[in-house]
């Protein structure tokens, strides 16, 4: 069974380490803020100028002036700071973010990522993604494994305009957790109830399957 958006966020949250500064991209990545493990202290950064982002607000906590880069209302945890976007991008470009979590349209076996435009559709701009993939060593892409038409998003070569080249090493989809090594996707974990055969059939890029591929648990 494919992972829900919330389960994908929970799985990503397990990658958070104590003391990390973490940037969460628009979409599923923002949900990670709701699943920071107990006892792990991280500072979540939003590129519009908030460091110390908390979970999404309850109705009582709602402040329309407190938003993330995706214009969703958020909370600020104790110790948070607010600054302008120039300061925020100096942090990103200076390599001061320990982990970046991004959505994507496509990823390929060379670690290339396409996440900002589909030709012929309305393009709002690249946003901060280009800076994030250039300034971060540790990036996890989270996305659906295939399109609504069943076409793989894990490719031998990205077909869409690139956001960054050779920068992605880890991918979490609704079917699997994979690492990119030596020009191939290496299957590390499966979603509960999802077979290796299904993952293989929906992965267009080269897929390496170890002898043991455990199921994720929640």
What is the domain total for the residues? Answer: 1
Q: What is the helix fraction of residues, given as a range?
A: 10-25%
Quote the distance from N terminus to C terminus: 13 Å
In one word, what is the shape? globular
From the structure above, extract its key features:
Glutaconate Coenzyme A-transferase; 13 strands; alpha/beta; 218 residues; 4 helices
What would you say this structure looks like, in words?
With 218 residues, the chain is of the alpha/beta class. It has one domain: Glutaconate Coenzyme A-transferase, CATH 3.40.1080. Helices cover 14% and strands 24% of the residues. The chain has 4 helices and 13 strands. The protein has helices at 5-13, 85-93, 129-135, 196-201; strands spanning 21-24, 43-46, 50-53, 76-82, 99-102, 106-108, 113-114, 139-142, 154-155, 170-172, 176-181, 184-190, 207-208. The strands form 2 sheets. It has a 10-stranded mixed beta sheet, with helices on both faces. The longest helix has 9 residues, at 5-13. The two termini are 13 Å apart. The mean pLDDT is 93.
What is the topology?
Elements: H1 5-13, E1 21-24, E2 43-46, E3 50-53, E4 76-82, H2 85-93, E5 99-102, E6 106-108, E7 113-114, H3 129-135, E8 139-142, E9 154-155, E10 170-172, E11 176-181, E12 184-190, H4 196-201, E13 207-208
Parallel strand pairs: 1-2, 1-5, 5-8, 6-9, 8-10, 12-13
Antiparallel strand pairs: 2-3, 3-4, 6-7, 10-11, 11-12
